[in-house]
Design goal:
mainly alpha
């Protein structure tokens, strides 16, 4: 029921009555993990394993807590043991797959999800998590197949509709994406990310007004949601509401100081407003965060050229062309700046 504090009180009492019951420690560990108190959870899993060294479920729980802390090597060690003790324990394969996915080892993650499905063909979580890996790999059709299975097995799971919607949106099937986001919101009307995702789909089909309504709702549910501020800024920018867009990019950057695309878009607006020094400051930040982006050097070069600083503009266009030799805009602007510099010098 999500009432972890009441659960912990009961597990405390159970442990007082029987201090050698490993299940009570394991279950209290689960409650602490649900509360985000991973260190206390690990202490309980340690005790459960001490009391029952063959307790595969406790190894899985401790591994999940280690994964939450980013300690994936320790997690995998525990999961190897959990699977050794219980080779048909599907959840351990899923947890290990999640750890491998976080480590960027998607091939090994997929093998574990496959194994989970082999030993438990009706494990909705395994299909859901495997779908997530396929989606991040750009294999959207395979992702959708897995989300279909997850929804078949667990038809009231809002997350599966949300993620299938993201896969459809990435494929360009925006109407089907919106249908899935609608269903996810019906099942769980309090998830900010789903409103933001639906807003993106509306934006992709040219309905910026409806997109903004969804971003408003996402922000009302989660006031520190940097992505929603960024996306709303993008929609406002597309409607030429530049001052409001800047306010949203400001907020996105305040919440996420390394948000390179927010700096870039804000810089573009400042360029359009001919506030060149502020635009240059933003492009500087983008280059610091993503130094291999030819477009940003070109944007900064345009600022310098409009300010009459042709040498600096030429340097930026040349940098852009080193990164992208066939970048027509940078080449054209480079030629323009060289001619402008020569004209100034001949006067």
């Amino acid at each position: 029921m999500g009432q972890e504090d009441l659960a912990i009180q009961d597990f405390d009492q159970a442990i007082r009555i029987n201090p050698v019951n490993p299940e009570a420690y394991n279950n209290r560990g689960n409650a602490y993990r649900a509360k985000g108190q991973q260190d206390r959870a690990i202490q309980d899993y340690d005790e459960a394993i001490r009391l029952n060294p063959n307790y595969a479920v406790a190894y899985n729980g401790r591994a999940a807590a280690y994964s939450d802390k980013g300690q994936y090597d320790r997690a995998i060690k525990d999961l190897d043991e959990s699977i050794r003790l219980s080779p048909a324990y599907a959840e351990a394969y899923v947890t290990r797959g999640n750890a491998y996915d976080q480590m960027g080892q998607q091939d090994r993650a997929l093998k574990d999800y496959d194994a989970a499905i082999r030993v438990s063909p009706n494990d909705a979580d395994a299909y859901y998590d495997r779908g997530g890996v396929y989606r991040h790999l750009g294999q959207y059709d395979r992702a959708i197949q897995d989300y279909n299975q997850a929804i078949r097995l667990k038809p009231d799971d809002a997350d599966s509709y949300d993620e299938r919607g993201n896969a459809y949106d990435a494929k360009g099937e925006h109407d089907r994406a919106i249908q899935d986001f609608d269903e996810a919101i019906r099942l769980n009307p309090h998830e900010a990310a789903t409103y933001s995702n639906r807003g993106k789909a509306y934006f992709d089909v040219g309905q910026a007004d409806r997109a903004i309504q969804d971003y408003d709702q996402a922000i009302s549910l989660k006031p520190d949601y940097a992505t929603a501020f960024y996306n709303r800024g993008l929609a406002l920018q597309s409607m030429s509401q530049y001052d409001r867009a800047i306010q949203d990019y400001d907020q996105a950057i305040r919440l996420k100081p390394d948000y390179a695309t927010a700096y870039n878009n804000r810089g573009v607006i400042y360029l359009l407003k001919r506030q060149y020094e502020r635009a240059v400051q933003d492009f500087n930040q983008v280059i610091r965060l993503t130094p291999d982006d030819a477009k940003t050097y070109t944007g900064r070069g345009i600022c310098y050229a409009d300010m009459g600083e042709y040498d600096r503009a030429i340097q930026d266009y040349e940098a852009a062309l080193r990164l992208k030799p066939d970048y027509a805009l940078a080449l054209r602007k480079l030629e323009d700046s060289r001619r402008a510099k020569a004209a100034v010098g001949s006067r």
